[in-house]
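2024-03-11 09:14:02 INFO receiving multi-entity request
2024-03-11 09:14:02 INFO entity count = six
2024-03-11 09:14:03 INFO echoing inputs for audit
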Amino acid sequence: MPADPETPLRVDARRNRDQIIAAAREIFARQGLDVSMEEIARAAGVGVGTLYRRFPDRDALVAAVARDNFTRVLTEARASIAEEPTAWDALVRFLRHSQELKLSVQLAMVSPAAASVMAGDVLTDEFRDALLRELDAVVHQAQAEGVLRKDIDTGDVAMLFALLLRQLPSTDDEVARVGPDRCMALMLDGLRAQPGSPLSGRPLTSADLNWSAKRQCPSA
Amino acid sequence: MPADPETPLRVDARRNRDQIIAAAREIFARQGLDVSMEEIARAAGVGVGTLYRRFPDRDALVAAVARDNFTRVLTEARASIAEEPTAWDALVRFLRHSQELKLSVQLAMVSPAAASVMAGDVLTDEFRDALLRELDAVVHQAQAEGVLRKDIDTGDVAMLFALLLRQLPSTDDEVARVGPDRCMALMLDGLRAQPGSPLSGRPLTSADLNWSAKRQCPSA
Amino acid sequence: MPADPETPLRVDARRNRDQIIAAAREIFARQGLDVSMEEIARAAGVGVGTLYRRFPDRDALVAAVARDNFTRVLTEARASIAEEPTAWDALVRFLRHSQELKLSVQLAMVSPAAASVMAGDVLTDEFRDALLRELDAVVHQAQAEGVLRKDIDTGDVAMLFALLLRQLPSTDDEVARVGPDRCMALMLDGLRAQPGSPLSGRPLTSADLNWSAKRQCPSA
Amino acid sequence: MPADPETPLRVDARRNRDQIIAAAREIFARQGLDVSMEEIARAAGVGVGTLYRRFPDRDALVAAVARDNFTRVLTEARASIAEEPTAWDALVRFLRHSQELKLSVQLAMVSPAAASVMAGDVLTDEFRDALLRELDAVVHQAQAEGVLRKDIDTGDVAMLFALLLRQLPSTDDEVARVGPDRCMALMLDGLRAQPGSPLSGRPLTSADLNWSAKRQCPSA
DNA sequence: AATGAATGAGAGTTCATTCAT
DNA sequence: GATGAATGAACTCTCATTCAT
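2024-03-11 09:21:47 INFO inference complete, emitting structure
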């Protein structure tokens, strides 16, 4: 019993943990959150008992999957910024690549059930803050570059971006493939519009995005 | 003994039925489909038994709520077309007003669970087809008006529109109020962009949107 | 509200009552006791409310059906005795004709659920006693006639007879038609056997058949 | 993960399974099939969950109890044949001992509800066929021995025998004890009658007893 | 008096979680 | 440490019975 939470897990335990998260991510993405623990354990090739040894309850597993995904998104965001020549390019690449993460990220932010799970999770908050800091920088710089319209702020971009992070209603294969790309391109054109049409309210900043905080729904 | 389904319900039965659908719509919108029948019945002010007398099972209730909403959307679409001076205005008003229906419409098209319930429902198919016909007309006319970009088609508009029909991650009140409006305005600017940035694939038509048709997922 | 239970029902009420009993008899015979009140009411062409006005609860209906059948059996028993030349012939005819009543009579005596319903019902007791009195006479006289073996009594005959009052496992049509007849003939040969094989215990009299009395199963 | 159904159960699981079947047999015999799963679980000393882990649903439990009993009957039939000096003695012993199994066997063949559960069950069919083969041999040999009347066949014996496999209306203890024995003896005398009275139809063979086969009743 | 709508207790079944092996 | 068996609360749905129309 490692009293110290920092104590790294034994290799096999670590492997189990990873397998479970991977399996859960896959299944959550494919079928939504409504899966039994039994099924996740089976997909991960372990018994339920093992699953529960790693994650005290269902919510802990969901949170872990969500955290895992935030990390991936953050990593990708940083890579985009580091490797692309302009902030606008970084933003585009980030959005485009995050498409790949769509299936999993949506769970972390979209499902009301998942959201309530994440409420108040410290690690999640940190990740989100870090992500928003990066995004802030890109957005403001893209505006300085003159490509991104000036009457918006990071919050607006993030919201638009969040919309894309949902699975579209399934259609046939071709549409499923190009549809999201086309939507994104249309959105990017909207973000680039100069002059755009007047927007109601004020630019929404990253501070306006206290996602999932102050949640009160007790049951969901 | 009204064996005939056409036989109108008794007034009180009718009232109950309406209350149930209203309550279900409200709750589904707020908490998603994952609500117990008990809870819906309570919200509607009736007993579970009554709920089940009206709707043979959970799916029947979901389907009824969905159909109810399709009707509302269709009505609003037609009103927009009839009353607005230009097709573009009609499109904008439709999208804007459908915002109000957002909470409920999403159930009909977005949730995979709901989608599987609707699969093969004749009435739903009719509503969808009627809706797409109206949308087709508006879109093409708006392009003729020169406002809507030419490299897209009804399917693209509908997809973008469908994205908005999701509940945004809840934030504080002000953001929740203006956020969707701003997103929509940005999207509209994207749809209006002339010239827009190049889009991948070909314009998606209304025929590409065989939502929920030919579904085979056995489990969902 | 007729304070006097003797007050005859109005003609239409009477007709309803009869229709309900007839419908219930039919359905009970065909599908067993496990039928909803709704279904019985529908088969009788009345609403549930009417059914409940006539029979205060489910058990009362079952009891009424049972009593109705006892009456029929008793009538047939008396007719057999009156019209047949020998007691043995009367017995045979009675058993053979009661075959026709089988489907319904079994409910009154066979199903444990029904039995518990009948427990302590005064009218049922009277009918049964009357029936046994008739049977006693026939049995003893048939013994006096020298046809029926002497080492048995009415209780034995009744038990054997009760066995036949069950629906045989369904087979194909031909078997279903002749099977019961053959069984009965074999039983009659057993009853006629002179000398028969030794029987354990003592002859069972009609007094030994306190069917369904002193029942204690509370739930069934 | 025993995907293989052959994998033997863990000892404790096995013990629970047996307890459940035993409890179910007892209760079914006493009160009929109309018992709640809760009650069966309680009688077996386990939770409902355990019951459902072992038997996916109510029908599976009924089927398991039935199969268990067919095995017992078959075993007894074979022992009778092996150990008794004549076929007639084997038949008598079999019938007499199967009396003990009466309470449970009736479930397998008598209740219409149970019958529909067993329809198409392969194991049940095998057991029944094996049982009828044994019975065929005994019956024909007993006829060769000159004890059993010649105008009947296995089907007739089985039908008569099946009648006994029902619970008699309960009476007082003494009668309940000797009653079935006396009935059986009377039946045996009927089977032995030489010459017996003429029987309608033709001898029913074991092939006539396609119990519960080709069932099509969808509701029962 | 008749009808059928409403009710709610209870049955079958699932699944998150605990615990013996 | 891992496993999967056991548990029981919760959910969906049915039906005997009551009550407004």
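2024-03-11 09:21:48 INFO post-check: Chain D has nine helices and no strands.
2024-03-11 09:21:48 INFO post-check: The first helix of chain D runs from residue 11 to 31.
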